[in-house]
Records
---
Amino acid sequence: MLIYGPMRVICPLMFAFLLFATSLWAEPLSLREGLRIVTDDSRIIRIRQQEERASEMDTYIARARLFPSVNAGYVQSHLDQQPGMRIGPLSANTAERDSYSYNVSIQQILWDFKGVASLYQSSRMLLDAKRLDTRRTRNGVALEFTLLYFNLLESERLIEVAQKERETLQSHLAIARELFSQGVITRNDLLQAEVKLSDADQKLITAKNVRRIAGARLNNLLTRPLTTPVEVAEVEGIRTNTTPVETAWEMGERERPELQIADATIKAIDFEEKSVRSEYLPRLLARGGYDYTKNKFQIHEEYWSINLLASINLFSGGSTKAQVAKLEATKARLRIEKTKLTEDVRLEIEKYYLDLINSLERISVTKGATAQAEENLRITRIKYTEGVGLATDVTDAITLLTLAQTNYYRSLYDYYRSEAGYVYSMGKDLKDYYGSGERQVEQ
């Protein structure tokens, strides 16, 4: 196909643009970017935001009772007979057969012992609780994503381990076949190497399947199609220090949204109880209005009025007392739940702290074991190649190396998962922790 004129310039530019766009799309997903996506676009976050919006509207509804209420009405009348009155032998019309009337009135609560104002304050506290719940949900989604992210990284490292094991066994099988052809080893040694290689193939298939499942779960959290290819970037090392557990307890009790939600809810119930108790006391209202009735038989067809009203609920069947008792029981329940929740937070912090310390120790141990296993395999393979070693020694050495590498990566990503859980349990924002440089790591 021949290209003439400006197309000779446009086509290379389009190709370069597509190549650049493809390279951008193929860039591995970082933990920071993934957290930004899930905390902004997650479905459950959008649900919580709509709930928060509904709670905000409740505050406007409660606040509306603090303002004057304005009402207007209109009536059109058609009578079959004209109204009138009789005074002795005399009679007189009092209204027209066809007439209309309208009115406008305004009413304002002057004082109700802060009953309505307390309801408004209660709705504000509930809105604060809903916002805290959105924050809790957002950080919970961030924790879920972070754990899945590390699971995916771990599955990739275990695939590398399985591939190295397979390659090592393939090399061992090639040596075994050479030695068998020379009559140095028996057929049993050759069959053993073939069986070990088959087992390594199955392990590699399983590891790849685990990786695919982890990728699908990550895509689901990112609200992307499950089969979308996903590549993730490795995190940068291990933190240089760990927050002491006592400090973490204090931070958790101060920063955890769950405990703040309990406090805000208790305050909301306090305001609601104050509003209910105001029903025992009188209310003072002011009402003004304008009325007009079309009636030529009346002296005045329009009236302006202003009224001061006072009302008090003398008896309501005990409903007010029951509402107060119900709110007091709810507050007592919430205080007990907060105490339990505080203990649960401390226990959660303690668990993640111990997991963190344990995984750090395991990393140190398994890192040394990996180097020892590599040296053991090297020596064993030399002996086997020279005909002074056994095939089982080689396969055992390969198995030990695979086990050491697997243990190392599992302890490493157990540490990362424990770190994320420890940060979450203290009430810190994971998006800020992994995105703003708060996470200081060893160089």
Note: The mean pLDDT is 88.
---
Amino acid sequence: MREAMPTGQIARLPSAWLPIAMSSVALAVVLSCLLLFGVTRTGDEGAVAHLWQLLMTLQVPIVAYFCIRWLPRAPKRALGVLVLQLTAALAAMAPVYLLGL
């Protein structure tokens, strides 16, 4: 039996909003580094790059858990949240890709 849960309640789950928050922080880290130091290329990636990589990589198990838990129960609502998560991740990846960082 499917569990009925409104989209607002699904969005309040930590497994729903945490990846979006992590992507937002990753984007903020990249943008603040660009504003402070500009586009710099060094041999070592540095702490900012490692922090960005950690924030983006640690989202994978959280999103996987969300998919396993909520896609079978509330597919339409879960897909809406997944679209938001993907959009946030792509927004965080865009400056890195476009600037070749």
Note: The chain has one domain: 14-99.
